Amino acid sequence: MLSPYDWQESVSQRAQYIENRLKGGSPIVGLAIEEGTLLYTYRRHVRKIYEIYDRLMFSAIGQQADVEAMRVTAIDFAHQEGFARSESDVTIGRVVGFALSSPLKRAFGDVTTAPFVIHALFAEMADAPKNDLFMTLVYDGDFTAHRNYAVAAGTLDAEKRMAELLKAEYRADMPQAEALKLADKVWRVGADLDANGEPDPELLEGSHPEIGFLDRASNRERRFVLREGR
Amino acid sequence: MLSARMNTAPKSFADLVGFPQSLGPAKPGIADTHGTTVLAVRFEGGILNLGDRRATAGNYIMYDRAEKVLALDDSTLVAISGSFARSVEIARYLKHTFKYYARTQLQELSLSGKLMEVTRALAGNLSMAAEGIGIFVPVVSAYDSSNDSFGIYMYDAMGAKFDGGDFGAAGSGSERVRGVFDYIQREKGAFEKRPLKDVLCDGLTMLDIAAQLDAATGGLEHAPPIAKVLTKDGISDVAPKDLKEAIQTVSKNAGGRK
Q1: Which helix (H) or strand (E) holds B151?
Q2: Residue B27: band (very low, low, confident or very high) from pLDDT cuts 50, 70, 90
Q3: Which of A230, A171, A165 is nearest to A31 (CA)?
């Protein structure tokens, strides 16, 4: 039988294992501007930014199988809600807080199963940038809400440096081109793992920017646009 | 819930939400609200959809502002006639099915996949329809980006699909104007080569004639018809000003028969 000490020990080992695996992940930057809501990252062969629902999108650092499981769970929950009630009843808070957080916490605490290696960033577009909502969700089920901008990176230190830069340079009224430039700058700061002023070469090697954009002014049924940079 | 899936076959949206693919027989004697005439016509650069605004329940005019043309996604429009309750619900179901597929599978459902979903929804409605309730017939207008083409598809109440070519119509007033469409096409040339402005006037004329010959179809004067346009760039309403002008032209031309 496990003693309370064993449980604590194994949980902290699990956390350490997960954090080690997340360390080398490509950071993600989220920005709310007048034109819409942006997620920005760099990727290699596999897509990293996904549409969840009419006004929701998501990206994550972690193991691909875990990212995929979270993506499908979020999409299922959002579409069940949207059909059973209405499109406007689907909110990021409920997707993250109700559908995803508890099962993550359960999987993390259950030492007999593999934990989820994931650090996710969700974005919800509203009527104005000040009302857009970002939520970060980590492997143990903990989630945090952010306004205006949000980041997800492999280490806490990288996230701190990214947030500092955003705090200094973010403006809600910045045009999209300028917002993309800022997002790239912030990504580079987050990808600078050993804080030597340069992005980690392993993260840059063979990768290119990926941009998920929810278009605020669009009259189209589908407001999500995925773009790839060079 | 978050457990990794071993099964990668696309899950059906109907299973996800428990949407009944087939409904049991209905109790006869319930009069459901019906939408009446809708039509879809090609023009140069897309497809125009028109619908009168009348919704009837038996002899009773239930509503004169009905919306009978609905966007299913940015390249698919559906114009509905018949049971309002069933058709609106099924349009909502189809809309969710298409976007659920696109988001989970990371690719758009193909046009034939979308048309098959419409067939399945109609077939599922059959036992109710056989009892005389919940019958509806859609006209689907679609742009297929895979081969850069437009198509108009008509259905019967059992789900059989017919490629309509340049024209499709459904509802109680629709048979009345099919010959009118042929006549216009012979006189003025293929609809797909004519500008929207002209086709709009012809479409409204057909709707006006349907209203003259069918008591369940609303005319042009009481409330302007629904007019939506599908192009390669998506779906939009005909500008109210353009619609108003076209209605005035059509009404003026109709003056001669009085």
Answers
A1: strand B149-155
A2: low
A3: A171
* Alpha carbon of A164: minimum distance to chain B alpha carbons (Å): 33
* Whether pLDDT at B97 is above 50: yes
Per-residue pLDDT at B76 exceeds 70: yes
* Whole-angstrom Cα Rg for chain A: 18
Supply the DSSP symbol for B7: -
CB atoms within 10 A of CB A92: 26
The CA-atom distances, in angstroms, between B238 and each of B64, B225, B227 are 19, 10, 6
What SS3 class is residue A219?
coil
Residue B5 pLDDT more than 50? no
Cβ-defined contact of A73 to B17 (cutoff 8 Å):
no
Structural domains present in chain B: 36-252 (3.60.20.10)
* B window 2-31, beta carbon within 8 A of A: 2-5, 11, 13, 16-17, 19
> Regarding predicted confidence, which is higher, A5 or A15?
A15
DSSP conformational letter for B171:
S
Tell me the per-residue pLDDT of B218-250, one tens digit each, with 9 for 90 and over: 878 778 999 999 999 999 999 999 999 999 999
| Identity of the highest mean pLDDT range in A170-174, B21-25, B251-255 | A170-174
Summary count for chain A: helices (H), strands (E): 7, 10
**pLDDT tens digits, residue range B101-160?**
999 999 999 999 999 999 999 998 888 877 778 888 999 999 999 999 999 999 988 889
Given a contact cutoff of 8 angstroms between Cβ atoms, the answer to whether A25 and A62 are in contact is yes
CATH 3.60.20.10 fits A26-37+45-228, yes or no: yes
Decide: B78 and B88 in contact? Cβ < 8 Å: no
Distance between CA B115 and CA B124 in Å, rounded?
14
* Pairwise CA distance, residues B118 & B138, whole Å: 9
Mutate to test the interface with B, among A72, A104, A210, A224 (most CBs of B within 10 A): A72
Least confident of A96-110, B29-43, B176-190: B29-43
Flag if B17 and A68 touch (Cβ within 8 Å). Answer: no
Please give, rounded to a whole number of angstroms, the shortest distance from the CA of A68 to a CA of chain B: 8
CB B38 within 8 A of CB B49: yes
Q: Are B52 and B103 in contact (CB under 8 A)?
A: no
Segment holding A78, helix H or strand E:
helix A64-84
Average pLDDT, chain A: 94
Give the span between the Cα atoms of A118 and A61, in whole angstroms: 6
Q: Which helix (H) or strand (E) holds B104?
A: helix B84-105
Q: What confidence category does residue B23 fall into, taking pLDDT thresholds of 50, 70 and 90?
A: low
Is B88 in the A-facing interface, judged by CB distances under 8 Å?
no
